[in-house]
Design goal:
Blueprint lengths: L2 H4 L23 E2 L8 H14 L6 E5 L7 H13 L6 E5 L7 H5 L7 H5 L10 E3 L4 E4 L8 H6 L1 H13 L2 E5 L8 H6 L4 E7 L5 H11 L4 E7 L6 E4 L2
Parallel strand pairs: 1-4, 2-6, 2-7, 3-5, 3-6, 7-8
Antiparallel strand pairs: 4-5, 8-9
The chain binds adenosine-5'-diphosphate and magnesium ion.
């Protein structure tokens, strides 16, 4: 028996650590986009997150909801635009809904190269992002469709990717598929510092919300976003 085996060290983890990711914006493909300014509600949501950041590390935030169509991608895109408006706040929006990605359409960019291509070693990190011109926002689209998104998210490369991104961005938002459809968002919540749970007023049932909260674990939930209420989307910080 080797010493490593005797003390229970997993030998496959002994791969050399990747060099920290040094973001070079000149290497990130740039897209010209004149997005509408995010509405007041998303600036308020950003302010709530900033207030929470005064008390805890909140660099990576997962945007989750029970079902498709609740408004996760809408919330993630608008919140990312609002975050990137802050001075000295390089922001990255990642489309981790590898099943039905939407952010490439929202921003009018190619879906690939993106996250899956990077994880499968087919693109480097700079290639897998797009920088929104003149801003502090970068978007990582989902990448090429994969048959087994959940297996891809289980790879150690995902955690390494998040570590590298944390070196380069102050704020990282993760879009995700519905919690009741697949367990992708549960895996992603373990990589995030907290989760914002989106509800679609008039569509999300109490039952599906209860399941979503139970599956995430209440402690990981930062607050809820009530999407689609008359007069605008509202954010309700939990603590
Ligand atoms: N508050 C809103 N106001 C206007 N359109 C919205 C709003 N929330 C969501 N939508 C639209 O509803 C559709 C579904 O939202 P989306 O964010 O893609 O849901 P999810 O990512 O949860 O599947 C999209 O076309 C999106 O633009
Ligand atoms: Mg979506």
């Amino acid at each position: 028996m080797t010493r490593n085996a005797a003390v229970g060290i997993a030998l496959e983890d002994a791969a050399p650590a990747e060099a920290p990711f040094e973001l070079d914006l000149d290497l990130v493909p740039t897209v010209r986009l004149c997005p509408n300014a995010p509405s007041e509600e998303f600036r308020t949501l950003r302010t709530r997150l900033e207030q929470l950041r005064a008390t805890r590390v909140l660099q990576t935030v997962l945007i989750a909801s029970p079902s498709a169509g609740d408004g996760k991608s809408f919330t993630a895109a608008n919140l990312a635009l609002a975050e990137a408006q802050l001075a000295d706040n390089p922001t990255l929006l990642c489309d981790f809904d590898l099943r039905t990605p939407a952010l490439h359409s929202v921003f009018g960019i190619d879906r690939s190269p993106g996250i899956s291509d990077y994880l499968l070693g087919k693109a480097d990190l700079h290639e897998a992002m797009r920088r929104i011109e003149d801003g502090h926002l970068c978007v990582m689209p989902a990448g090429q469709a994969v048959i087994n998104p959940l297996e891809l998210l289980h790879l150690k490369q995902v955690r390494r990717l998040m570590d590298r991104l944390r070196n380069a961005f102050r704020s990282i938002l993760l879009d995700s598929p519905g919690l009741l459809k697949a367990s992708d968002a549960n895996l992603l919540s373990a990589l995030a510092d907290g989760t914002l749970l989106v509800t679609r007023m008039g569509a999300t049932t109490t039952d599906s919300m209860r399941h979503a909260i139970e599956s995430l674990g209440p402690d990981s939930i930062l607050g809820m976003v009530a999407n689609g209420i008359p007069g605008g989307t509202r954010s309700l910080a939990r603590r």
